[in-house]
Amino acid sequence: MTKAKQETRLGLVRRARRMNRKLAVAFPQVYCELDFTNPLELTVATILSAQSTDKRVNLTTPALFARYRTALDYASANRVELEELIRPTGFYRNKTSALIGLGQALVERFDGEVPAAMAELVTLPGVGRKTANVVLGNAFGVPGITVDTHFGRLVRRWAWTDEEDPVKVEKAVGELIERKEWTLLSHRVIFHGRRVCHARKPACGVCVLASDCPSYGIGPTDPPTAAKLVRGPETEHLLALAGQ
């Protein structure tokens, strides 16, 4: 494709939206991979996911959510007990402080309920824009762009933006993609990053975005070789789309 520096703004918008449509075909059923049943559980799980994996968090939260069901439960938690429960997710002391602070803030300022507005969410301990967008998009149905490590890496590879700061990445991508698509786009990009477009060796040779990607070729382009790099339950579907 034409190099990004030669691309017009209109060309970039069209390419970004075309790539989003291709991702929708590649990943027709996307979702938050953290297990939760309500906004509080999702907020807690997202805080725990920092410097951890969704899989590890999902192994930790059943016991946690059984013991701590309300904001008041977190606000009045025994620190040692809470630390022990969330220890497997890493950085458990800092996360314990965040969860206790979260519970206290929710009880004191929001009647124990997680607010459904960005401006209020980001005032809570442990909650930045990334966590807020996860909660808004998946618990409240409010469109949001979640800029995690996968999302940032991929949109820079695609030359949608060269920004490194997550807030600037969020703004740049939000100007390319329709607002109603933001939450789904976030899931699609994250799925693609986990399954196909890996950090060290992306599976370029079986990527549905190959014709639109300025970074095509940084990973193996030989389809049989690339096919071995694809991960996840969608592998068969993704390889079929690539003609493998």
Automatic annotation (TrEMBL):
InterPro entries: DNA_glycosylase (IPR011257), Endonuclease-III-like_CS2 (IPR004036), Endonuclease3_FeS-loop_motif (IPR003651), Endouclease-III_FeS-bd_BS (IPR004035), HhH-GPD_domain (IPR003265), HhH_base_excis_C (IPR023170), HhH_motif (IPR000445), Nth (IPR005759). It comes from the Bacteria. [4Fe-4S] cluster binds at residues 197, 204, 207, 213. Its cofactor is [4Fe-4S] cluster. Binds 1 [4Fe-4S] cluster. Keywords: 4Fe-4S, DNA damage, DNA repair, DNA-binding, Endonuclease, Glycosidase, Hydrolase, Iron, Iron-sulfur, Lyase, Metal-binding, Nuclease. GO terms for biological process: base-excision repair, AP site formation. It is an enzyme of class 4 (lyase). GO terms for molecular function: 4 iron, 4 sulfur cluster binding; class I DNA-(apurinic or apyrimidinic site) endonuclease activity; DNA binding; DNA N-glycosylase activity; metal ion binding. PROSITE patterns: ENDONUCLEASE_III_1, ENDONUCLEASE_III_2. CDD domains: ENDO3c (cd00056). It catalyses: 2'-deoxyribonucleotide-(2'-deoxyribose 5'-phosphate)-2'-deoxyribonucleotide-DNA = a 3'-end 2'-deoxyribonucleotide-(2,3-dehydro-2,3-deoxyribose 5'-phosphate)-DNA + a 5'-end 5'-phospho-2'-deoxyribonucleoside-DNA + H(+). The keyword S-adenosyl-L-methionine does not apply. DNA repair enzyme that has both DNA N-glycosylase activity and AP-lyase activity. The DNA N-glycosylase activity releases various damaged pyrimidines from DNA by cleaving the N-glycosidic bond, leaving an AP (apurinic/apyrimidinic) site. The AP-lyase activity cleaves the phosphodiester bond 3' to the AP site by a beta-elimination, leaving a 3'-terminal unsaturated sugar and a product with a terminal 5'-phosphate. NCBIfam families: nth (TIGR01083). Belongs to the Nth/MutY family. This is Endonuclease III.
